[in-house]
Amino acid sequence: MKKLLPFMKKYIKYATLCPILMILEVIADIAIPYLMSRIVDVGIANQDIEYVLKIGLIMVAAALAGMTFGIISSHYGAKAGFGFASEIRFKLFEKIQGFSFANLDKFTVASLITRLTNDCNTLGQVTMMSLRMAVRAPFMMIFALFMALRINASLARVFVVSIPVLVIVLTIILSKARPMFLLMQTKIDRVNAIIRENLTAIRVVKSFNRQNHEEARFKERNDSLRDTALRAISLIVFLMPVLSIVTYSTIVAVLWFGGRQVASGSMETGELISFITYITQILMSLMMMSFFFMQLLRATASVTRIVEVLNTESEIKEDENPIRELPDGSVAFEGVSFRYPGSTEKTLKNINFHINSGEVLGIIGSTGSSKSTLVQLIPRLYDTTEGRVLVGGIDVKRYDIKALRDKVAFVLQKNTLFSGTIRENMKWGNEKASDEEIIHALKLAQAWEFVSKYKDGLDHRVDQGGENFSGGQKQRLTIARALLKSPKIIILDDSTSAVDMATDAKIQRIFKDELKDVTTIIIAQRVSSIQYADRILVMNEGEIEASGKHEDLLLSSPIYREIYESQQRGVGA
Ligand SMILES: Nc1ncnc2c1ncn2[C@@H]1O[C@H](COP(=O)(O)OP(=O)(O)O)[C@@H](O)[C@H]1O
Ligand SMILES: [Mg+2]
């Protein structure tokens, strides 16, 4: 909680005023029964109309003041609570933007979404309630108890019985409900997780015809949440009746003993009436406190989950005096090994190679041979475990991360487009790109041939994830987007796999002949995609099995020859 307090700074005014106003409201609430008793005992007893009117007016004024304070206090409480939550939400969002891939692997997207939405909302609500209830309940209780004792100390002895009874019953119920509420929270998470996972992958689910399986999985979690919620609620339903029984029994006892005192003349009627009001106020505050503790319980789970994210340091640390300019687009790996966080095996083992600025590097190898892992080290999506990665002759760790990533364009294997227009998507690469520049990039990526056919051209709509394009079209659009960054290095991770051979060949030629200053790294399944590269790495189980030009590799690398021949056979058949 201490970690979160600074986020209240902006709202500190409201967070202080809310409880202060709350206390004023409580004072008004406490004064009203007292004023009432004066009206009954003095005004009515003496038939003094003027006194009744005078005190009556004060009573109305107190009620109005109490109401006003109450309304403003609630308003301030809401401002502080939800303001606090929104500050934290923003900070979380910012934090996540700075997360490395390794951080994201650890938390999973679904759980991050729950933390940003549910947990922040809970925290906001509970903060709002705490500011009000945590102040109102104890003050109300103390004031009311004080007044009751002042009116009639001997009658106040009923509390010796009723308060402990209520406290014991509340404690029993709440201690039984507590684990169930915590369990409910985890079950809500489980339901949320499956909803998120499914909705983001709904097309996959449908295409694999897994709806029934997924429905069953959902039903199991959903039912289990319902059962826990029902069990928790079935305990909570006892709270109200218990409170009523204790309150009414206490009132009956007070009427019984107090009635006698009134009859014998040692207590006034009005005093008895106000005494009963104080009883209700005291027992209500106890109830309120117990509810408050329950809310607090809910919040602690959320706080833990929020703080966990805030405490996570990005695995990628920036140099204190970072370099902001890349001298050129050369790339070198020196004795690089890499292990994924949490994994025991090395995914990359002792990688060494060098390419000059502007050259084309091809990488080939079976799936799982760590091709993607290797290239992710260049824009520092992950850091090496051993050895160094050099770009422009300088260790990547020395660069300003933003500057580095601006100059290293990465077309990820699973790249997506965003909902909007083609133009908007292209501007992700470069906000200031003109239509001419965009069209030029689209032409280079061989995407203009289909974009130019749309009546609305660059204004053509892109659905979420680019679902309204074919795989090959999407790949060409993402390549164009990367080119708009005018990078020094461009990495294509299997980015032309869905493009037909002829178009693929055109793209390869563009990279070799037109983009002479751009270092190009192409990961491909097809030998034809990298055949003309200045250098080819053949990857096998995290190691470079062989490297060289196409013709050399055909002679020196059995794996390469095998891949090549199998693909030739494919073409011939
Ligand atoms: N985020 C990750 N966390 C842990 N292991 C991973 C992660 N990504 C990939 N791997 C593992 O690293 C190995 C190499 O994967 P990858 O580099 O994607 O291979 P390729 O791109 O050659 O198909 C695989 O065994 C894969 O399971
Ligand atoms: Mg891959």
In short, what is this structure?
With 573 residues, the chain is an alpha/beta fold. The chain has helices at 12-44, 49-97, 101-107, 109-151, 158-200, 202-207, 211-236, 239-264, 269-310, 371-376, 401-407, 422-427, 435-444, 448-451, 471-483, 501-514, 550-556, 558-572, and strands spanning 331-338, 348-355, 360-365, 386-391, 394-395, 408-411, 420-421, 461-462, 489-493, 519-523, 535-540, 543-548. It is built from 18 helices and twelve strands.
Describe the structure.
α1 packs parallel to α4 (109-151), α5 (158-200) packs parallel to α9 (269-310) and α13 (435-444) packs across α15 (471-483). The radius of gyration is 36 Å and the shape is elongated. The model has no long low-confidence stretch (mean pLDDT 89). The protein has two domains: 5-310, ABC transporter type 1, transmembrane domain (ABC transporter transmembrane region fold), CATH 1.20.1560.10; 331-572, P-loop containing nucleotide triphosphate hydrolases (Rossmann fold), CATH 3.40.50. It has 573 residues and is of the alpha/beta class. It has helices at 12-44, 49-97, 101-107, 109-151, 158-200, 202-207, 211-236, 239-264, 269-310, 371-376, 401-407, 422-427, 435-444, 448-451, 471-483, 501-514, 550-556, 558-572; strands spanning 331-338, 348-355, 360-365, 386-391, 394-395, 408-411, 420-421, 461-462, 489-493, 519-523, 535-540, 543-548. The strands form three sheets. The protein has a six-stranded mixed β-sheet with strand order 6-9-10-3-11-12. It is 62% helix and 10% strand. The chain is built from 18 helices and twelve strands. The two termini are 68 Å apart. A hairpin with a 2-residue loop joins β4 and β5 (394-395). The structure holds adenosine-5'-diphosphate and magnesium ion (MG). Adenosine-5'-diphosphate binds next to α10.
